[in-house]
Amino acid sequence: MTSHFFAKGFGRNFLSLSVLATLTAVLAGCGGSVSSSGGGGGGGGGTGGGGGTGGGNLACDVMNTGQMAALNGFVPFTNSSLWNTDISTSPVDPNSASIMANWVGSVNMHPDWGNDPTYGIPYVVVDGNQPLVAVHLGAYPDESDPGPMPIPANAPVEGGAGSGGDQHVLVLDNGNCFLYELYNASSNNDGSWNADSTAVWDLLSNGNTQRPWTWTSADAAGLPIFPGLVRYDEAASGSIKHAFRFTLPRTYAAFTPPASHAAGTTSNSSAPPMGMRLRLKSSYDISGFSANTQTILTAMKHYGLILADNGSALYVTGVSDNRWGAEIGELKSVPSSAFEVVQINPLYNDSNYPTGAAPSIASFTSSAPHVQADGSVTLSWSVSGATYNIVSPGAGAVRDSSVTVSPSATTTYTLYSTNQYGRSSATVTVSVP
Fold first, then answer.
1. What pTM, to 2 d.p., does this model score?
2. Strands lying side by side in the sheet with 277-280
3. pLDDT, tens digit (0-9, with 9 covering 90-100), for 314-342
């Protein structure tokens, strides 16, 4: 078991804790090979290609396209997701008062967004025809998902390109219902991107067990970022049905679901773990606030705040928008004393997290071993136990059990199959000519 610390933005020490359970499978056909590990293969991204993969007429096709586009009522993940679970009647943690006093402190909530477009975390929605481009993985490929990904050349970067902050890039694909998140991202002149870590999320899953235990993501807690953002379009709709993302300056090296990763900044075991949830007390009177603010605060009473990163105390993350007004000042008036800690259970660390079998890849084959340049072949696979699959290069995240590719040169394709216990991989080579 290995561990290392690395910094990601303000106070962000990520802890990589493990090499998970291994699994050996037998690959049938075309001289391919299979491997499995909890460390993952990472990789340098893809070679580009056409649009995304998956299929049409999915639930997320109601989302508009464009930067900071409206989702028109679509909520990432299923109702069974811990992001979307009503916790208004869940028990209060027995250490709630101590955690609030010692680790949150006497502060007011701070909305970490506003009118300035370089503040908050931006996003872009693309359609299923967005070209796939390579993503070159930097510092942390072992816990990243490889490309290609449908990242536009003009995708907004948190803080602005070259800002020196976390530089997150968030892309939602409304044609295939995948969410792509990059940390420390930058674009290249050839259309490809660089990122220190990446994560792909299936927006139609429950999102609870998709990331392998102890793996990071583009966020410190191994969580998706986008589902926890406060967005103007939702506030104005009058109903928000998910939790929000927030930060604290000191955390312990442990995590509770839906978090999958620890990022401890203190050895004090009484400190909050990643994934800890705060809830606005039901007794807190919100009747004097504006309608949009009441919508946000009501969501905090029903879905709460999920600890996702090390940062300033009780900073809640949102999307900047020039339509925000009184909400910002009103939210700043809400004191930490209005919150309580929801019972933390289960609690995992590097010695007691769940273990199990990584996905089993029975086969990964090509319809032909050779093809003329720019001709087409069909890659097919049989996998059990996976929560998502990626074919790299060429196809990216895929939903079905086959995909058509058109290599311009001899290419070795890798299938990455991932679940909460690790990642398995298989390869097949298509020769050109």
1. 0.89
2. 110-112, 315-317, 244-248, 305-310, 277-280, 339-341
3. 999 999 999 999 999 999 999 999 999 99
